[in-house]
Amino acid sequence: MKFIINGGKKLHGTIHVSGSKNAVLPILAATLLADRRCVIHNVPRIRDVEVMMQLMLSVGRTVRWDGEHTIIVSDGKPSLKKLDPKLMRSFRASALFAGPLLTQFRTVRISEPGGCALGNRPLDDHFHGFRRMGVTIARSRGMYTLSHRGLEAKTIVLIAPSVTATENIVMTATLTVGTTVLKNAACEPHVQDLCDFLNSMGAKISGGGTNTITIQGVKKLHGTTHTVIPDPVNAMTFVIMGLATKSTIVVDGIRPDHLDVGLETLLAAGARFDIHKDSITLKSTGVLKAMKIQTRPYPGIPTDVQSQFGVLATQAQGTTLIHETIFDGRFAYIQELVNMGADATVCDPHRALITGPTPLHGHEIQSLNLRAGITLVVAALVASGQTVIHDAQIIDRGYEDIDIRLRALGADIRREA
Q: Which secondary-structure segment (H or E) carries 250?
């Protein structure tokens, strides 16, 4: 699959932000904890959600679309008989099945999860928490066997505020007798959304969205109806897309309070936009100044928008320093920007320098991974001439119908097999 983009055009109109990918995946996993039907609204129609639904079917839960953006998960107990290791290996969010399944089975076998190649991404933080709760873990031939004789409520201190480890431990603790206290927890909006979802099912969780989460275990969780938060990464992507292409677009269906540091960074660089209750209106941009971008856990700039800031830096005046503190494999996209004419240097696995403004030119490039892929779409919209982006299906993992939605803004983009 490839995208063919003829760039250099300004965009016009409104683009709506979908539900959060990083919120809906753990929420779908958490439905395995419920003994009744769950209805989830504002679910993005993306490939990762489809894979998660297939995984849920493989553990015996009936899950289906009800309209465009609602998923219904039936009641019933999960089964391990048909849990598909191949599906689990296809994306990283499959690790989120471990916690809910451990609350219902004494032994769970899961495969090493896959996902985007972003550098070293071990499950050590997950296993650290599980071990504190009485789980033993053995690894053999790419499979992990997790066993326990009864989960134990404990105080757990994460060495790093891992998002998925926080989510896994919180889900496990909801049905564990006693009080679990999780310190140095991740504070991201999608973690809080998961906690809100679990509480609506009858969990007793306090501190979601802070670095200390307290979970009082309950005997069971019931079904619920929940609306997923807007995707903050999608929102920042579209804001940066508008700025990079010097377009006056409206990005709506957002939560501005989830974007604070990113928006302030853009304002300090000279960007002009109006922030409303649930939308941002971009204005004609003057000269953008170079920035200092350092990715951090929430409320800092998320690693998932680092590459988008990278392409914006090619259009800013001066030299931007990007310090990627989370992953050690997130600068592969920079070589593709250089192929398009960018003045950029990767100093080491965690630092890069990008000097602008420089004109970008159409080129034949690779998507590489989800976030790099959407970044290169932005670069192609900025560039003069035609760009061909290969492996475009990777972008479908996190951006719903991106080609259709960009065409509605006036972009010249088409999808070819």
A: strand 248-252
- Taking only the tens place, the pLDDT of each residue in 188-217 is 999 999 999 999 999 999 999 999 999 999
End-to-end CA distance of the chain: 4
Q: Which residue has the tokens 């991201």?
A: 188
Beta strands in 271-411 (DSSP E): 273-275, 279-282, 292-294, 318-323, 343-348, 351-356, 364-366, 386-390
Examine the pLDDT at 118 and tell me if it is beyond 50: no
Distance CA 64, CA 45 (A): 12
* Comma-separated ranges of CATH 3.65.10.10 domains in the chain: 2-18+230-416, 21-227
Q: Return the active site residues.
A: 116
Q: Looking at the DSSP assignment, which residues form a beta bridge with residue 97?
A: none
- The three-state secondary structure class of 161 is coil
Q: Taking Cα atoms as reference points, which of 248, 244, 166, 240 lies closest to residue 209?
A: 166
| Helix/strand/coil for 279 | strand
Supply the CATH classification number for the domain 21-227. Answer: 3.65.10.10
Task: Give the CA diameter of the chain.
Answer: 63
Ordered DSSP codes for 71-130: EEE--S---STT--HHHHHT-GGGGGGHHHHHTT-SEEEEEPP-----S---SHHHHHHH
* Length, in residues, of the chain: 417
Q: In what order do the strands lie in the sheet with 364-366?
A: 364-366, 386-390, 2-6, 412-416
Q: How many CB atoms lie within 10 A of CB 255?
A: 16
Using CA atoms, how far apart are residues 110 and 4, in angstroms rounded to an integer? 39
Contacts of 140 (CB under 8 A, 6+ apart): none
On whether the CB atoms of residues 319 and 353 are closer than 8 A, the answer is: yes
Distances (CA, A) of 152 to 35, 103, 115, 173, 359: 22, 11, 30, 8, 58
The per-residue pLDDT for range 65-80, each reduced to its tens digit, is 999 999 999 988 888 8
Percent of the chain at pLDDT above 70?
98
The CATH code that applies to domain 2-18+230-416 is 3.65.10.10
Cα–Cα distance between 295 and 306 in angstroms, integer?
7
